[in-house]
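Example record used in the benchmark description.
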Amino acid sequence: MGRFVVHGVSAGRRPPRWFIGCLALALMVGCAVARAAEPPGLCVLPELATDERPLPDGPPTTVEVGWGIVDVLDIDDVNQRLEGDFLLTLAWVDPRLEELEGCRFQRSRVWVPRVTLFNSFSLTARRANLLDQVVVETEGRVVYQQRYGGSISTYHPLRDFPFDRQAFLFRVGSVESGPDQLMLAQMSERTFLARRLNIEGWRVTGLETAAATEAVPALNAERSIFTATLEAERVSSYYVFKIVLPMGFIVMMSWAIFWVPPQRYEFQIGLGATSMLTLIAFQFSMSGYLPRLGYFTIADRLVVWATIMVFLAILNGIVTGVLVGADREATAVRVDRLSRWLFPLLLLLGWGSVLL
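Model output (structure tokens):
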């Protein structure tokens, strides 16, 4: 009985590797040729005007906006800036793309709403992350995402520094299109705040969003504005140990005047002057924390009251010196004894009124 042979390979033997490789290559080439011969697929974009919104003669196009905060890197009080990593998501319905569910296209090939961040900013678009494409979902819903990194102007008030809470606003709107053409709405499912942030010295408490039609003075017109509000609370313990506590020690140093004998009023005044110079130097070192403001912060009021207390301690030394010169040493001693408990009480009352 003869042996069955396929291309010179007996049926009882395993085909050589070169034969298997050639067969696999032939199958791949065949699949590629068959795919090329197929009719065009579903993701063929029809010709449409990319500068014309869907239904241009109909009601305004509703664009849902989502604002994601991927990270917050720094909050600069001096320059009034917030640096971070952000994700902007836009979604709208384009009836012209209803039959293209699941397809992806470059942003330049379809109509995309022209919105911008109204805060003055220096953001960089990271298009490589999301390929700068739109995704078509069911019923012609189009979703576009863009990631940004950089800094945004914040304009946050600092009256309560360093015990302040801030609301940092991100305002998104269209410069060209009014509410009769473009209406912005919230997209809660694409609005998020990352669980872990790189920011130090702040405790981020939440992210809220809203959309409304507002008057924009710079455009002298109304626009539909989407606003995301990042709420944060400053961690004040750092400033308590760096500002309040050292300043308290400087003030208490001036109270040593009350324990120096009134006869040595020159030493008392010298000790008070040393405390005053130390406090002034401390104020200069604090100037780097804040911009030049036209109002007092809580830290400024604490410093002013501390300065007044040191000045009153110097004045106490002068008064007791005058009393000693007038042979009224007993009165000078009573003044010093009264000041030993009166000055700490005044400091607590003054700082307490500022903080409360």
